[in-house]
Amino acid sequence: MANTASFVLLFCVYATALPHPTSPGGLPPDNLQREIQTALRTGDAGPLLKEVTRLLDLRRLPSSGGLLDEPRRSLLCSTCSVGVAQIIQEVENGAAPEAIASQLTDLCVALGVATLNVCQHFFALAEPQLHWIILNRHVTGKDACGMLFVGFGCETDNPERVWEVSLPDTPKPPVQPPILPEPGSPVMKVLHLADTHFDPFYKPGSNAECDDVFYCCREESGPPERPEAAAGQWGDYRFCDAPKWLLQEMYSHIANTHQDIDFIVWTGDLIPHNLWNTSREGNLDVIRQAIQMVKDSFPGIPVFPAIGNHEAHPVNAFPQPYIENEFDISWLYDEISALWATWLPADVAASVTYSAFYSTPIKPGLRILSINTNYCYSFNWWLLLDDEDPASELAWMAQELQRAEDAGEKAFVVSHHPPGHRDCAKTWSHQYNRIVHRYESTIAGLFYGHTHKDHYMMFYDPDEPERAYHVGYVAQSQTPYHKLNPGYKVYTVDGDYQGSSYRVLDHENWIMDLDEANESDDPRVFLLYKAKEAYGMSDLTPSSWSDLIYVMNQPNSTVFETFYRHYTKAGRPLLAAGCDGECKRDLLCELLTSDNSDRSRCDSLGSS
């Protein structure tokens, strides 16, 4: 989730006040320039500056999901390009990080984007790293905006952002479609936990509609001004994360209900959404507590984790492993390596401490690859410094899959960000898809999180565009943040026997209804649906999932209505808001896209 976008865009607005290096025709309007200069001096925003902010709608920009109409997209990208160019010039001319952070804080408050508390702390955390990056890699405004805001339709013009991973020389073997098992064949059960976002400071009855807006339901949120604003006992639909007792109740239910779980995949984001108020030690404490809860709840069950973007401090900031200055991220990787050692063998420690990825066998004939997809996430500003296969992770991924192919193994690939997500860097996404396509017969399952919703993502053959060759499963969050019910997913997988496809055969999805839990103070976790039954599918092959999209694309599709209820985990606020024709098209487009560099398949979708 990217509340970061609102704050980063303030760099653009701020920068239009600075002297422009080009011809007079390229200058911002004089009166707007004067208004911003006054705002920086006095903290007061004039009418033109407020209008720019209103048009960009900075406060609500993150909830748009990157889906902007063309005039707003054009305004955002062009303003960003001009503005960031001025920020870069100021930094290169010797402006102090503290001065820039102070100016941005004043504007942030004056324009009503957030409170002084939020603005001040966010820029104090973010500015030093961005300052260092600008001084150590020459980037243009358009290049920076095209990388940071790829999810909002901005594009870089830097040819160096297009690169290619060298794959092993072994030719791709003939594709053998997986053979579905006979009825009664052995199966495995796999629990998928995602986006836990554990808040150890959640306080029932505190203000869920606090001034800080982007995060509430804590002691510092203050008392509610009306009864309806009070945070619920078991969590809240507003900008609040999961209290400890919610997670413990859900884990207890899972342990009692699903006693046949073979292993767990856990796709990251353990830290709450108070992104302006994090620290290294605070993040590590939350990670330790969250991991301990899972250890205590599922003793003896293997867990295969992946790292999320919120684990870093500042949020989203994952520098390359060769960064060994004060921004070195080994403080995080060393700790998670030690914590994950409960579940993982000692021989993966080197790759985890290097860059938080690993490969290890699960069973004879099946291994798992955990990928650090923060190297594709556009709000990881370290990609401005160097985005070419950071940590050589994709090259490593291809080599590990080649080893699996040579050994006759199947592989599960798990990570936090889905590769087709709008905020995944286009070249990284494309290269990831090249690897998945090359090793399609070796890969048995692809599992993601990040969106907090319950859905899937199709992989289509670039050489045979109508052939769906894989499906990636995106699991729902444990946190209710925001407008969602907490939930989890359990896969039924082709079992551990000679010749197993290890493919997902079905999945079931469970939720806790927050309205019901908070009203009765008696939380009930219940089955929302089973995939095959809910959608009338005979199997969960990629072609079946692909066909379902085009069934849902039909006007007034009742199947889409069912899917949307499941997608939102039956969260009352989102169901009440509904999903109109544009919403439906955008959602189906996400299902169709695993390669963010090519969204053309969405052109065939209807608008209603």
Structure notes:
The protein has two domains: 158 residues, no CATH class; 374 residues, Metallo-dependent phosphatases (Purple Acid Phosphatase, chain A, domain 2). 38% of the residues lie in helices and 12% in strands. It is built from 19 helices and twelve strands. The strands form two sheets. A six-stranded mixed β-sheet has the order 3-2-1-10-11-12. It is globular. About 3% of the residues have low confidence.
Strand content: 5-15%
How many separate helices? 19
How many structural domains?
Answer: 2
CATH superfamily of the largest domain: Metallo-dependent phosphatases
Distance between the termini: 27 Å
Strand count, sense and barrel status of the largest sheet are: 6 strands, mixed
Task: Provide key terms for this protein.
608 residues; alpha/beta; Purple Acid Phosphatase, chain A, domain 2; 2 domains; 6-stranded mixed beta sheet; 12 strands; 12% strand; globular
Question: What topology does this entry show?
Answer:
Blueprint (H helix, E strand, L loop, with lengths): L3 H12 L14 H13 L4 H10 L13 H23 L4 H14 L5 H21 L4 H8 L38 E7 L50 H14 L3 E6 L13 H18 L5 E3 L24 H11 L8 H7 L2 E6 L2 E6 L21 H14 L3 E6 L10 H13 L4 E6 L6 E6 L7 E7 L12 E8 L9 E9 L1 H7 L4 E6 H5 L6 H11 L5 H10 L4 H6 L3 H12 L16
Parallel strand pairs: 1-2, 2-3, 5-6, 6-7, 7-9
Antiparallel strand pairs: 1-10, 4-5, 8-9, 10-11, 11-12
Helix pairs in contact: 1-4, 1-5, 2-5, 4-7, 5-6, 9-10, 10-11
